[in-house]
Specification:
single chain, 265 residues, alpha/beta, 3-stranded parallel β-sheet, 8 strands
Length: 265
């Protein structure tokens, strides 16, 4: 079940109802003693009598520990359901987009095909960032490409060159997730390619310390370069048909830094 990027108010009605009806609330943690970000998001909706079930998802590169964690999580959830418990598995963002819950789902489908499942989608950080920045994600014949930020500058440059090669009205919008420390070299690359002014930077969307700002206003060093939970929206072109005031869109948001916390105006 997707619980959105951080603001409890961005949990869907379906998610809140499922949480409140659950006997067991499961959620991923990087360490068993940790609270878990998804659990923090839904804390206003939890009931005292509900049982918490932290599931360990180690943040490692090696495949074996991750596969073991997915299998163990699926077994734990299936056991709860078999015992007659109503269970929800919390997932930050959306349950199907770069989500650890997707791997647990695949394990359940393979090893426990009779286990009843219901997936509840959640608001993604990219959608929440675009809304916070008053930044239309895609228009008319444009496509939206959502991908992790490449580790190699040459790979990102090639990706951007391909995006710029098409007709302007059909050039894609890129949502680069997991930006983190790569911002130190992504920013100058965008500047060289003339894409910095039209890009939107977002960090910890939906949390009290949220920052949503024109990318040109965020330096390449400092805390903006160190946060794993940061992303970038890059506009490679505008469609041909815009409102009569469309000339102002290209400059929209470039003079102000938006950092309103959740619940702000």
């Amino acid at each position: 079940m997707g619980v959105g990027p951080g603001d409890p108010e961005l949990c869907t009605v379906a998610a809140v109802r499922a949480i409140q009806a659950a006997d067991v609330v499961a959620y991923p943690v990087a360490r068993l003693e940790a609270e878990g970000m998804a659990a923090r998001i839904v804390s206003p909706w939890l009931r005292q009598q509900q049982r918490r079930l932290p599931l360990l998802f180690p943040m490692v590169v090696e495949p074996a520990p991750r596969r073991r964690a997915w299998r163990q999580a699926a077994e734990a959830l299936a056991m709860e359901v078999a015992a007659g418990q109503r269970v929800v598995l919390l997932c930050e963002g959306d349950v199907s987009l770069f989500a650890s819950a997707s791997y647990v789902l695949l394990e359940l489908l393979e090893r426990h095909p009779g286990c009843p499942l219901r997936l509840i989608p959640g608001i993604t950080a990219a959608s929440a960032a675009a809304a916070a920045g008053a930044w239309p994600l895609a228009l008319q014949r444009q496509t939206l490409q959502v991908l992790p930020t490449p580790d190699d500058p040459a790979e990102l440059q090639a990706l951007l060159e391909t995006a710029l090669a098409g007709p302007e009205g059909q050039r894609p919008v890129l949502a680069l997730l997991k930006l983190g420390a790569r911002w130190s070299w992504v920013r100058p690359l965008l500047d060289r390619m003339g894409l910095l002014e039209g890009a939107l930077f977002a960090r910890r969307v939906g949390w009290p310390e949220q920052t949503v700002a024109p990318a040109s206003a965020v330096p390449s060093d400092g805390d903006g370069a160190s946060s794993y939970f940061s992303l970038l929206l890059i506009r490679c072109g505008w469609p041909e048909v815009l409102p009569d005031t469309g000339a102002a869109w290209a400059d929209h948001g470039q003079d102000a830094c938006l950092s309103e916390p959740p619940g702000g105006p």
